[in-house]
Design a protein that fits this description.
The chain has no helices and 4 strands. By secondary structure, it is mainly β. It has one domain. The strands form 2 sheets. A two-stranded parallel ribbon has the order 1-3. It has a two-stranded parallel ribbon with strand order 2-4. It is elongated and about 50 Å long.
């Protein structure tokens, strides 16, 4: 396996809900590596729900 050096962003975030609908769930990020370095960011956040 090759090492990974992350300087950017890897994201699989869910979208926000609309008109009294819950937001979408975040996805998954799977990294298989021998070594992981860098100051990047990995996110898999759920989207916000809405009221009204």
């Amino acid at each position: 396996m090759m090492p990974v050096y992350l300087t950017g962003v890897i994201s699989c975030n869910g979208e926000a809900g609309t008109s009294q609908v819950g937001g979408a769930s975040g996805g998954s990020v799977i990294l298989k590596t021998a070594k992981f370095n860098g100051k990047g960011k990995i996110t898999a956040n759920g989207g916000a729900g809405t009221l009204g």
